[in-house]
Amino acid sequence: MLVRHHPLQGAPLGTAREIVSFHYGPADTGRKVHVQASLHADELPGMLVAHHLRQRLAALEAAGALRAEFVVVPVANPVGLAQTVLLTNVGRFELGSGENFNRHYPALLAPVLARLEGRLGDDAVRNAQRIREALREVVAALPEPTELASQRKTLLGLACDAEVVLDLHCDCESLLHLYTGTALWPQAEPLARCTGAQVSLLASESGDNPFDETCSQIWWQLEAHFRGRHPVPMGCLSVTLELRGLADVSHPLAQADADALVAFFTHRGLIDGPAPALPPLLNDATPLAGTDVLSAPVSGLVVYRRELGERIGAGEVVFDVVEPISGQVHPVASRTDGLLFARESQRYARAGRALCKIAGREVVRSGKLSSD
Ligand SMILES: [Zn+2]
After folding, report:
1. Which residues sit with Cβ closer than 5 angstroms to ligand 1, an ion?
2. Is 222 helix (H, G, I), strand (E, B) or coil?
3. What is the pLDDT of residues 212-270, one digit of tens each?
4. Closest Cα partner for 169 from 227, 246, 100?
5. Three-class secondary structure of residue 129 per DSSP
6. Coil, strand, or helix at residue 300?
7. pTM of the prediction?
8. How far is the CA of 39 from the centre of ligand 1 (A)?
C-alpha cells in the first residue's frame, strides 16, 4: 500500500490542506479503480465505507489477490469539511463561491481531441490506452487558480484514467440508489445488484458537469466523434453511489457495503477469487429524466404522507405544506407513477425548495436534471 499526499494550491494564507490517496495492488497492469468518499463533505456514509474497504483491500493485497490498482480517497473534500457555520457543517457548496463541490468539473473533450487526432487505430484496447494517456496529459495541464479548482484537478487526476470510478455520496433520507451514464448500464447493472440499489438513474448529460460524468462522458463523446473510423470502448464505468441518508452511518451498513464493492470488483475480474453469485436486480434502471422532483409551492411546514420505498401513483399526494398562520394546507402530488426513493430531511421549507424524488419510467423533465 502506498500513501500519496496531494497539497492543494490556493489555500488561504497561513493554512494548508491536502488530499490523501491510498493505493493498493499493482500499478503496472493498466487496470485501475478509483473510489472516493464525501465529495459533498457532510455526506458521511461513504467515508465509513472507504474505511472498511481499505481494510479489505489491505488483506487482499497481502494475499496477492488484487489484479488492478485500487485508489481510495476517504476524504475527497477537505475544503468542505472545514466549513462549519454555527455548529453545522456546510459541505455541499463552497462558501466563498457558492459553487456545488460536485459540479463544474472542466469539459475535457476539446483538449483531449486535440491530442488524439492521428493517434488512434483499429484496436479498441490500444485506443483506450491512448485516450487514457491523453486524459492524464490534459488533466495535468489544467490550471488551478483557486483551492476549489486545485481540489477538482487533484481528484480528476487520480480518477481520469481508471476503468471504474465510484463516487460515494448520500441523500438526505434515502434508499440506496445510483446515477450513471445511459451507455454504462450494462457495466453498472452488476454493481446495482451487488449493492442492492433500489433505483438506478441513467442520463447521458445531467447538467453542470458532476464528477462522475466528467470521468465517463468523454468516452461516449469520443465514440461518437470517431464512429466509423476508430473503435472507442466505454472505457470508464463511473457511478455516483448514493449510500442511503445522511444519518445512515453505521458499521453494519458500511461493512456490508464494502463487502458488496469487493463482490462487484471480483465479478469484474479486478480481484482474484470465485465469481460471486449476483443477487437479483431489485428494480429496472429508469431515466433520470423520469424522476419527478416535487417542490414546496409555498413556504411552510412539510408533512410527508408517504414513506420511502412506497410506490406512488400519478396524482397521489406525497406531502402537504402547511401554512400555520393562514391555516391553508397545500397538498403536493406526484406527476408520475414511480418509487419514492429520497426525501429532504428538514421539515420547514421555503417556497420552491425541492423536497422529494420519485423514480418513474416516463420522461417528465428536461434540461438540467441534477439537483442544485
Ligand atoms: Zn452528494
Report:
1. 40, 43, 169
2. helix
3. 999 999 999 999 999 999 999 999 999 999 999 999 999 999 999 999 999 999 999 99
4. 246
5. helix
6. strand
7. 0.98
8. 7
